[in-house]
Specification:
Shape: globular
Largest sheet: 2 strands, antiparallel
InterPro entries: MFS (IPR011701), MFS_dom (IPR020846), MFS_sugar_transport-like (IPR005828), MFS_trans_sf (IPR036259), Sugar_transporter_CS (IPR005829), SVOP-like_MFS_dom (IPR047969)
Oligomer: single chain
Order of helices and strands: EHEEEEHHHHHHHHHHEHHHHHHHHH
Radius of gyration: 26 Å
Helix content: 55-70%
Number of strands: 6
Subcellular location: Cytoplasmic vesicle, Secretory vesicle, Synaptic vesicle membrane
Distance between the termini: 28 Å
Main location: membrane
CATH superfamily of the largest domain: MFS general substrate transporter like domains
Number of helices: 20
Strand order of the largest sheet: 1-4
GO molecular function: transmembrane transporter activity
Keywords: Cytoplasmic vesicle, Membrane, Synapse, Transmembrane, Transmembrane helix, Transport
CATH class of the largest domain: Mainly Alpha
CATH topology of the largest domain: Growth Hormone, Chain: A
């Protein structure tokens, strides 16, 4: 008979060749340390060799197990479910804003400020809840926070379709925004199951589901709006959330969270489930438990190790949303004017019109919405190509710099074709930079504060989204060039902030606990001397 034993030590990256799989031998490359799964022939009555007498003397952490098990069937399923949350709970509900506003403007004869408030109230809800959902996810689990936020959004999303008057729909859409604020926690859960090599690419590819969600929402509007109206659009747009809520029962809780909350058995069961689904070996040994009761506290984001990182990330996320949504609003204004130089005269004409003048969305408008959405794909592809080559910090800095440069080029009185190219390049890079921030933020914070860190950053992004209409629409009436200077200057400062981030997370494992030695985290998992096995102190059977 054959006995397979894993002498497990700290894991960096795992690799497995096809020949290894065929021959039954598996080799794990661990930052210069090689350990083997060697088949040992045992005759009846023969003694087990001394070096294999107690293979469980070694210890491992969740990060080691995730790296050893690798990317497989489980992560593919998780990718689809996370993408469904991103498409249904985020992209579709946000895309409704651009479709619902002009419809209610005409049907209920709303003045312009009330139409604008319909959009703003959603961002207010998101801003006020992002930190709360992060705290819930750190205190009670990622899966718990995500399920509650999805069910919340589903409930109030359907109720929005029955709103009798403006005040009701304003309150209900604000509550929908409150639920949407918990969607970024799907990225936290997703990232904690991904091995180091696949993490950046997988999180970036979630942006594809954003595009799918927005395209689906526009197509749904084309079919529903002419016949059933906006109420049925709101109800039908919320139904995909029901599918995600059902699939949530398949989702496991994060093993990293279980370890931090002291639930070793549940963490091991989750890791075994992943190993079984991926057809990979489960490492032997004792899973280290670093229980931490004090989780999800705001003060942990401002410890000496994370203070500057938190402040710089808040500004980076603010700048991302401020610039992204500002560009979306400016694109409409520029296209309607024809070029930048004509916009001032057009503004004067529009000012004289009655604020109740309205136009229903036409087929051409829906086509423009589709093309605008598709412009983000190049940004994802560029970011996907460079983020593991030049690092997270430089990717964000490059994205902000290109956006700032394109904004300055708009000072020139270019024709519509050149204007379109500049706006598409700017949008491609700012959307790519946004996704790079989604990669970096879960990587830089430890498990104890990861959800809260991402939640507060998402909240700061909503502040930027709230402010940007006053720049892209109100300030634009006074000066086109001052408006462009504000966006260009903000992104230039954000590029500098990206360069000054203290930690580069490229090739760095996720931190399990904020109580671990800082120097060890800074140098990464490769800092351990080859051949040195961790002590069993602090581990539990």
């Amino acid at each position: 008979r054959i006995l397979r034993v894993v002498k497990f030590r700290r894991t960096g990256e795992s690799s497995r060749s096809d020949e290894d799989v065929v021959s039954g031998e598996h080799e794990i490359q661990i930052e210069g340390v090689r350990t083997e799964l060697e088949p040992v022939e045992l005759e009846d009555g023969a003694a087990v060799p001394k070096e294999f007498a107690n293979p469980t003397d070694d210890t491992f952490m969740v990060e080691d197990a995730v790296e050893a098990i690798g990317f497989g069937k489980f992560q593919w399923k998780l990718s689809v479910i996370t993408g469904l949350a991103w498409a249904s709970n985020y992209a579709m509900e946000m895309m409704i804003l651009s479709i619902l506003a002009p419809q209610l403007h005409c049907e209920w004869r709303l003045p312009s400020w009330q139409v604008a408030l319909l959009t703003s109230v959603v961002f207010v809800g998101m801003m006020s809840s992002s930190t709360l959902w992060g705290n819930i996810s750190d205190q009670y689990g990622r899966k718990t926070g995500l399920k509650i936020s999805v069910l919340w959004t589903l409930y109030y999303g359907i109720l929005s379709g029955f709103a009798p008057v403006y005040s009701w729909i304003l309150v209900l859409r604000g509550l929908v925004g409150f639920g949407i604020g918990g969607v970024p926690q799907s990225v936290t859960l997703y990232a904690e199951f991904l091995p180091m090599k696949a993490r950046a690419k997988c999180i970036l590819l979630i942006e594809v589901f954003w595009a799918i969600g927005t395209v689906f929402e526009v197509l749904l509007a084309v079919l529903v709006m002419p016949t059933l109206g906006w109420r049925w659009l709101l109800i039908l747009s919320a139904l995909p959330l029901l599918l995600f809520a059902v699939l949530c029962f398949w989702l496991p809780e994060s093993a990293r969270y279980d370890v931090l909350s002291g639930n070793q058995e549940k963490a091991i069961a989750t890791l075994k489930r992943i190993a079984t689904e991926n057809g990979a070996p489960m490492p032997l040994g004792k899973l280290i438990i670093s229980r931490q009761e004090d989780r999800g506290k705001m003060k942990d984001l401002f410890t000496p190790h994370f203070r500057w990182t938190t402040l710089l990330l808040w500004f980076i996320w603010f700048s991302n949303a401020f610039s992204y949504y500002g560009l979306v609003l400016l694109t409409t204004e520029f296209f309607q004017a024809g070029d930048v130089c004509s916009i001032s005269s057009r503004r004067k004409e529009v000012k004289a019109k009655c604020s109740l003048t309205c136009e229903y969305l036409k087929e051409e408008d829906y086509t423009d919405l589709l093309w605008t959405t598709l412009s983000e794909f190049p940004g994802v592809l560029v970011t996907l190509w460079i983020i593991d080559r030049i690092g997270r910090k430089k990717t964000m800095a490059l994205s902000f710099f290109v956006f700032s440069f394109c904004s300055l080029l708009l000072f020139l009185c270019v024709g519509r074709n050149v204007l379109t190219v500049l706006l598409f390049i700017a949008r491609a890079f700012i959307s790519g930079g946004f996704q790079a921030a989604y990669v970096y933020t879960p990587e830089v914070y430890p498990t104890a504060t990861r959800a809260l860190g991402l939640g507060t950053c998402s909240g700061m992004a909503r502040v930027g989204a709230l402010i940007t209409p006053f720049i892209a629409q109100v300030m634009l009436e006074s000066s086109v060039y001052l408006t462009l200077v504000v966006y260009s200057g903000c992104c230039l400062l954000a590029a500098v902030a990206s360069c000054f981030l203290p930690i580069e997370t490229k090739g760095r494992g996720l931190q399990e606990s904020s109580h671990r030695e800082w120097g060890q985290e800074m140098v990464g998992r490769g800092s351990h001397s080859p051949g040195v096995t961790r002590s069993n102190s602090g581990s539990q059977e």
